[in-house]
Amino acid sequence: MESLQLLFHGFTIAAQPMNILWVTIGGILGTIVGMLPGLGPATGVAVLLPLTFTMGPVAALITMGGVYYGAMYGGSRSSILINTPGDGAAIAATFDGYPMAMSGRAESALAMSAIASFIGGTISTFLIAFLAVPVSKFALKFGPSEYFLLYLFALTATATMSEGDKVKGFAAMILGLMIATIGIDMQSGVSRFTFGILELQGGIDFLIVIIAMFALGEVLKSFKNISDGKKQMQTKFGKVWISKADWKVSWKPILRATPIGFFVGVLPGAGGTIASLMAYSTEKQLSDHPEQFGHGAIEGLAAPEAANNSASVGALIPMLALGVPGSGTTAVMMGALLMLGLQPGPKLFQMQTEIVWGLIASMFIGNIILAVINIPMAGLLVRVLSVPPKILYPIVLALTFIGTYAISNSVSSFYLLLIFGLMGYFLGKAKYPTSPLVLAVIVGNSMEQSFRRAYTLSNASFDFLVSSPLCIILIILTIGAIVLPFIQDYMRNKKKAVNA
Amino acid sequence: MSLSTIMSMVVTLIGALYTFSTLMLPAARIGNPTAPKVFPLILGIALLILGFLLIIAELRNLPKTEEEKKKAKASLAFGPVEKNIIFTILNGILYALLFNPIGYIFSTFIFLNLQLLIFRGKQKWLNSMLISTIFAVFAFLLFNTFLGVFLPTSPLQFI
After folding, report:
1. Which residues of B29-68 are buried (b: 16+ CB within 10 A; e: fewer)?
2. Would residue B35 count as lying in a domain?
3. Average of pLDDT values for A148-159?
């Protein structure tokens, strides 16, 4: 009941005309960035971050929320129309969305993707409204040792559950934590790893690392799309809507995919990509005609679309209620919150109810607005896709520079931007995931502080690791997060060997 | 040698350097003298171990067939994409150097023009200049005037 009251209060904030305007602007800009090949929600929020600098915290968060799910919607547009997913979470939309567009059903595909996203997003916003408070209340009991282990678990899970080599994921995570230790140590005054460079004494601003990795680095990686040439794309559309038959086969998959997406989203490290792929394969298994999947089966588009939007909402729970982000995009949003002087975590729910509930309520409104933008205005928005990347990428580059300047007010941060952007590019090229690194840079400081407090409290020993039942559970979870993917890999290889 | 192999060595090297610098840190004069060192030391040693694991994995997966060797070589190839990246970085450095002396609008105009020139070639220069001008002026107005992020102006003072 308490949640309902708070949610109602949230609506009175989110429904203010200015806030509706912000979520609309954020949604449109996010959709545009999300449509650019290779650029997803994390990039969208990172590039558009400076726009929110002078807003109040509520408006800033609402705008960023709009950018976040706008980019999720946008990612599927380019998947369906040009077979180029904006980001990982939109990959599953290419499986059946693109074949649909090829066979002249682009209108149904665009409409279904928006409808499924809307339903997935709305249901999961209800779930977050009722789950966030209990989670945050539970987290109030956490001491420094629990927090340290929680950070460790979240980072470990992100490192091992992201795509590719697990050891590389860990290396990226440690590199991120190392970046966070640069600068003068606030407690002892010892200057660490600054190598005599004055500009490094204050530490490296994590927002610059975010923009460098997620905006500059991703754009550099996308340079390979520039020489691709122009892709043929449909620009004239009939009525963007679905038929009754489409709805009949899709509503069940949407309702099944939504909870899958939500709970995968809550887990650290998993996120939209895994959620949408899981929803896709579930539907394929349950289907009476699995052979149609991959050839334009509309339920094969509906399920992953519902799941990935639902996952993006679920991912907000650990970030808001625990202060531990579990994905790249929520890490960027947490960075933005910290910049506004707000510490996400259980106390945020106790003291800043306006902000939290304003955001949650604005997610309902944002979902409606985005569905409206993306269905009737689909034809207009996708025109962006016909602007060549040769023009769009330089503009995004210029935005990363002005964003960096807005954060630091100094040109010396341009060099940091370039260094970390290049680092992001090379890491990506050598198949190191960048999300664990960025996550680690953001939580690194808090993680070290809780480590030091716990370490001191147990008289300079590592006893704190087993000081409470919760600690032991977290350690078991962390070990599980390390071991599980290796077992999965092993099983998969064994299966392959048997099949071969 | 592939890029992945080089990166595994770089990671190990960073681990070694970081561990070494941690050990060289002065003792804290306030509180526990080793307090600022413990956490970094764990990180340094962890990265060293991970680096060794990565090198071992690379050695075990050395390319054997001709095809794999070609692939490893291709990861270090210098193509048009790499050329564009180097150019972009140099353009960024030039941007940083010009930013304060000639102000936001002019430096952004030059940065965008050069970037568009390398991507699109000379033919569409007029269109590129138009895009750069519109972006520079629009961004200046948006950030400087509306968002209160004060941007440097040129010696002409007003822009």
Report:
1. eeebeebbbbbbbbbbebbbbbbebbeeebeeeeeeeeee
2. yes
3. 90
Q: Which positions in chain B touch A421 (Cβ < 8 Å)?
A: 89
The residue of B1, B8, B10, B11 whose CB has the most chain A CBs within 10 angstroms, and thus the best one to mutate to test that interface, is B11
Helices (H) and strands (E) in chain A, counts: 22, 2
B117 interface with A at CB cutoff 8 Å = no
Q: Are residues B66 and B35 in the same domain?
A: yes
Q: What residue numbers bound the domain in which B112 lies?
A: 80-146
Share of chain A above pLDDT 70, in %: 96
What is the pLDDT tens value at each position of chain B, 159 positions in all?
788 899 999 999 999 999 999 999 888 877 778 888 999 999 999 999 999 999 999 998 887 788 888 877 777 788 888 899 999 999 999 999 999 999 999 999 999 999 999 888 888 889 999 999 999 999 999 888 877 788 898 887 776
Read off the pLDDT of residues A183-241 as tens digits, 9 standing for 90 and up.
988 888 888 998 888 888 888 988 899 889 888 988 898 887 776 555 566 777 777 88
For residue B99, tell me if it sits in a domain.
yes
For residues A86 and A89, what is the distance between their CA atoms, to the nearest angstrom?
8
Q: Which residues contact A264 (CB under 8 A, 6 or more apart)?
A: A270, A271, A274, A275, A278, A307, A311, A314
CB contacts under 8 A, A 17-76 vs B, are 50-51, 53-54
State phi, psi for A192 to the nearest 5 degrees. -110, 130
Domain spans, chain A = 2-499
Two structure tokens written together for A144: 């420094």
Q: Say if the ipTM goes beyond 0.85.
A: yes
With beta carbons less than 8 A apart as the criterion, state whether A271 and A327 touch: yes
Write down the pLDDT at residue B77: 80
Over residues A63-71, the mean pLDDT reads 89
Q: Mean pLDDT of all residues in chain A?
A: 87
- Looking at residue A181, its pLDDT comes to 94
Residue B40 CA to residue B35 CA, distance in Å, equals 10
Question: For residue B122, how many other CB atoms are within 10 A of its CB?
Answer: 7
- How many domains in chain B? 2
SS3 A64: helix
Which of the 8 DSSP states describes residue A213? I
In a domain, B105, yes or no: yes
CA distance, residue B145 to nearest chain A CA (Å):
12
Exposed, middle or buried, B133 (CB in 10 Å: 0-12/13-18/19+)? Answer: middle
Classify residue A383 as exposed, middle or buried by CB count within 10 Å of its CB (0-12, 13-18, 19+): exposed
Per-residue pLDDT at A228: 57
CA A144, A451, B7 angle in degrees (round to 5)?
A: 135
With CB atoms and an 8 Å threshold, state whether A190 touches B21. Answer: no
**DSSP element (H, E) containing A183:** strand A183-184
* Closest among A45, A126, A113 to A363, alpha carbons compared: A126
Residues 5-44 of chain B with CB under 8 A from chain A are: 6-7, 11, 14-15, 18, 21, 25-26, 28-32, 35-36, 38-40, 43-44
A171, B51: Cβ pair inside 8 Å?
A: yes
Asked if residue B100 and residue B67 are part of one domain, the reply reads no
Task: Name the CA dihedral angle for A219, A221, A222, A227, rounded to a multiple of 10 degrees.
Answer: 130
B25 and B39 together in one domain: yes
Q: Tell me the shortest Cα–Cα distance from A418 to chain B, in angstroms.
A: 7
Helices (H) and strands (E) in chain B, counts: 5, 0
B97 and B53, same domain (yes or no)? no
pLDDT at residue B28, rounded to an integer: 80
